[in-house]
């Protein structure tokens, strides 16, 4: 039996604690019960807090801990999960310097972990890992809405907020607040096998195929800036993405030189006009695939591409699925 330790702190998101506990505790159990078989649990769990105190979550619920994280060391820990920060991030970081220091012991992988993920964070829990220096020069993700702030605070981290789950060495991160189920299923697959993870996902009616926050981040997080020229250009792109668009035409529309446009767009949104346009087109393609029976060739042209194979490669890179597979999974 593998032991999963969830770290509790005041201001945590309760569901990111209790939900993860449910997933790991019921892996190999719920599916068996549904089918009248003997349950075969794979994990035990424990909620650990500083000094074993209660954990007062952001929604007002108080959770009773199973002990103190101070009694757990990196060499004896199978898997440690840091949940979402629900309270103001600066407040939680300032209130938990001892936890940040304790997390620092996971800077190198445990030689006894056999190459497994040993430490994981959900959503804004990545701020605690980054504060401890654990994500330096590593790929990570966090909630798309806090990605700009994360980049400013921890520029040495290779942040990839479009991804729902990242794994770099012995550390994993998950994106949005409810991505704990994606993280949980992913880690269960790694530690208990694909069949156990698939059965758990089916039993909990979880879509285990999600791998991107792009639909949420591309058109929303990129608008949290005050550059009116770039905002106007973004609105135009979102209405005219199907047209033949190049950098020169965008510069002419915005009244900027191409060089100024590139610089201001990057400062405002964190990406280039081309990558932003690609995100819009992929999101439009997703909508067509989910809500229509149009052939992929027609969708390709509608969203501004001519070559179906090139579009399909780009779509797969952004979503993790080929257009046909995406439609089979999400089409209505």
UniProtKB/TrEMBL annotation:
Protein name from the UniProt record: Helix-turn-helix domain-containing protein
Domain called HTH araC/xylS-type: residue spans: 231-329
InterPro entries linked to this entry: Class_I_gatase-like (IPR029062), DJ-1/PfpI (IPR002818), Homeodomain-like_sf (IPR009057), HTH_AraC (IPR018060), HTH_AraC-typ_CS (IPR018062), INH-QAR (IPR052158), Tscrpt_reg_AraC-type_HTH (IPR020449)
Superkingdom of origin: Bacteria
Stored Pfam families: DJ-1_PfpI, HTH_18
UniProtKB keywords: DNA-binding, Transcription, Transcription regulation
PANTHER family attached to this UniProt entry: ARAC-FAMILY TRANSCRIPTIONAL REGULATOR (PTHR43130), TRANSCRIPTIONAL REGULATORY PROTEIN (PTHR43130:SF11)
Gene3D superfamilies registered for this protein in UniProt: 3.40.50.880, Homeodomain-like
């Amino acid at each position: 039996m593998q032991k999963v330790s969830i770290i509790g702190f005041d201001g945590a998101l309760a569901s990111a604690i209790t939900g993860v506990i449910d997933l790991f505790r019921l892996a190999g159990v719920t599916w068996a019960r549904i089918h009248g078989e003997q349950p075969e649990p794979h994990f035990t769990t424990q909620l650990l807090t500083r000094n074993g105190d209660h954990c007062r979550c952001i929604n007002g619920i108080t959770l009773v801990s199973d002990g103190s994280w101070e009694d757990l060391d990196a060499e004896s820990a199978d898997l440690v999960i840091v949940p979402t920060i629900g309270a103001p991030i600066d407040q939680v970081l300032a209130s938990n310097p001892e936890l940040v220091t304790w997390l620092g012991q996971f800077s190198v992988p445990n030689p006894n972990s056999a190459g497994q993920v040993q430490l994981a964070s959900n959503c804004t829990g990545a701020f605690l890992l980054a504060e401890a220096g654990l994500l330096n020069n590593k790929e990570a993700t966090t909630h798309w809405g806090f990605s700009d702030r994360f980049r400013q605070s921890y520029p040495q981290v290779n942040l990839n907020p479009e991804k729902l789950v990242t794994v770099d060495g012995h550390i994993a991160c998950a994106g949005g607040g409810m991505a704990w189920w994606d993280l949980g299923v992913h880690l269960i697959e790694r530690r208990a096998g694909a069949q156990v993870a698939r059965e758990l996902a089916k039993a909990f009616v979880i879509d285990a195929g999600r791998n991107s926050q792009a639909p949420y981040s591309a058109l929303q997080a990129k608008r949290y800036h005050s550059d009116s020229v770039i905002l106007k250009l973004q609105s135009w792109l979102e209405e005219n993405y199907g047209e033949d668009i190049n950098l020169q035409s965008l510069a002419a529309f915005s009244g900027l030189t191409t060089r100024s446009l590139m610089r201001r767009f990057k400062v405002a949104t964190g990406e280039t006009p081309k990558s932003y346009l690609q995100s819009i087109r992929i999101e439009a393609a997703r909508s067509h695939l989910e809500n229509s029976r149009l052939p992929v060739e027609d969708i390709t042209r509608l969203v501004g591409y001519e070559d179906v194979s090139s579009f399909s490669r780009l779509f797969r890179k952004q979503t993790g699925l080929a257009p046909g597979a995406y439609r089979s999974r999400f089409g209505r």
